[in-house]
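Supplementary Methods, section 5.1.

A reviewer requested that the exact input to the structure prediction be made available. We therefore reproduce it here, unchanged from the version used in the analyses.
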Amino acid sequence: MRIVVDVTPLSHPRTGVGNYLRGSLGGLAEAAGDEHEIVAFAPVSMLSRKRLEEAIDGIPVEQRLVSLPPSAHLWRTLWSRIGTPPVERLAGPLDVFHFSDWMYPRQRSGIRSTIVHDLIPLRHPEWVHPRTRRQNVAKYRHAARTCDVIVTISEFTANDIAERLGFPRERIVVAYPGVDQRFTPSPSNTVLQGSGGYVLMLAPHDPRKNLAGLAAAMELVPELRLLAPDDVSDDDLPALYRDAAVFAYPSFFEGFGIPILEAMASGTPVVASSDPSLDEASGDAAVRVDPSRPESIAEGIRRALQERETLVAKGLEHVGRFTWRACGEAHIHGFLTST
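The structure derived from this sequence is encoded token-by-token as follows.
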């Protein structure tokens, strides 16, 4: 099969969605071997093209990157609405077109597939910008109407898609994320658990991550400080995980919760929300807490400190089940069985 993957989101600074896209692209290339051809396709502005090229550098795929004027977003939006020309005009012949949230142009033939990470814009519109909600809801409706396959990142979200979008569950493929090899424990992973230690939180500006609840909980654990950086570079993130006494993820809702796996792979105990959307990422290797109760979060942090050795061992075992190759294999299996 010739599988064309829309990698347009990689033209912007990477978030969780971008990291999944890059990892799954690498997993697809690894799983495809010599049997299938993987094409990275993106119509992007000249300014964004360099970032995209850097993002996919080293992944053995064919690149079909189309340079657009600075108004690339408007062009992609119009292309999705007008439906012409078909994607084959720019990407070449294809057997599968796997598109992102950023555009959904028409195709002449082949399997039509997309990725849905979560249904947060439908479930909690108050957490997203109105434009983001409009864009995503339009994409959901289009996908439910036109796709042969929808790929998602957890069983929880797969069931959510089937229920809320009315898409047949048997045509939804779960492709769990993998964990990058840069996330590994330190050989001497001993963290000062006194006044010099810290509890790590990521993306504090996102309301669903629950900074207020964690900050209130930290007042009950004065021996540790809270480290919640707004932005962390890819180079700095592994060390932040390794050196944390605890990684806290008291989120109200997630599509999966990739940072939980990254922290576990780094040898750091995890305190995670008890919301069912985080069950698959947490397994039995995280301390689960009620995200609406600071007292529960604080108790979870204390327990993680006390049970550190056991939790680290469980976390490393749990995270070993998640690889990007397995993610790529799940994609390919879904495409093959949809025909």
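The chain has two domains: 2-178+323-337, 198-319. These observations are discussed further in the main text.
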